[in-house]
Specification:
The protein is mostly helical. The protein has twelve helices and three strands; from the N terminus they run H-H-E-E-H-H-E-H-H-H-H-H-H-H-H. Strands 2-1-3 form a three-stranded mixed β-sheet. 35% of the residues are buried.
Length: 226
């Protein structure tokens, strides 16, 4: 299973140590989604188990020759695509069609798989995206639906609303705030706590990236992705 050091320095399988994980590795098909939305990946069993406690537990319950296919019917194929990219390269695709919705879902998927470094890579994508794009109502609803109270993802969303309130996009901040109220009763509490903390001088969350990460440093994360 991956150690904290592995998580911090993960560069995919592009070095000798991690290439060894693929040597004589078992192969498993992972099917994600349901019905017509289902997508399948053929992946290295040992690589999955090494980096994800979730897969280490799930796949160790059956012998390799017995379990050839693993089903994830309740998960999002697009989000799992980002996980596979990270698993093999240490990076995630930052194409516009993955942001921000699929990236938010991928962050939640990383929590399920117990992969904090993957969550951080996705969070870096979200932070960079919102440097030039305001947080939208549907993003706020999604974030409050899938993330737990006090999570880095929620904190980033609330901080972004606080920041937008001080900028020229105040109207959008009000709309997003209303979406937060409709999505979860926790939003008002979270927003009030942040406003009391910041007063009239909130910080730009896109400049404070590391506070929303679990194991990576934001500056290093962006250098690695450039």
């Amino acid at each position: 299973m991956a150690t904290a050091k592995d998580q911090n320095n993960y560069r995919g399988v592009a070095d000798e140590e991690r290439i060894l994980l693929l040597q004589d590795a078992g192969i498993i098909t992972v099917r994600v989604g349901i019905e017509k939305a289902t997508r399948s990946w053929t992946l290295h069993r040992e690589l999955l188990m090494h980096h994800s406690p979730f897969f280490a537990t799930a796949l160790s319950r059956s012998f390799p020759e017995v379990l050839n296919t693993f089903e994830l019917p309740g998960d999002h194929p697009g989000a799992f695509t980002l996980f596979v990219q990270w698993l093999y390269t240490g990076e995630t695709d930052d194409q516009p069609d993955t942001l921000p919705g699929v990236a938010c879902i991928a962050w939640d998927l990383g929590a399920k798989f117990q992969c904090p470094a993957f969550q951080d890579r996705v969070m870096c994508q979200l932070i960079d995206y919102h440097k030039t794009a305001f947080l939208k109502e549907d993003s706020m609803r999604l974030i409050y639906r899938i993330s737990p109270p006090g999570s880095e993802l929620r904190n980033f969303a609330v901080d972004q609303v606080c920041w937008d309130r001080t900028m020229e996009n105040r109207e959008n901040a009000q709309q997003v705030g209303a979406a937060g109220v409709m999505a979860a009763k926790d939003f008002n509490r979270d927003l009030l706590e942040r406003l009391l903390e910041y007063g009239n001088e909130p910080e730009d969350p896109c400049e404070e990236g590391s506070v929303y990460l679990k194991v990576l440093d934001y500056a290093v994360c962006r250098v690695d992705s450039s």
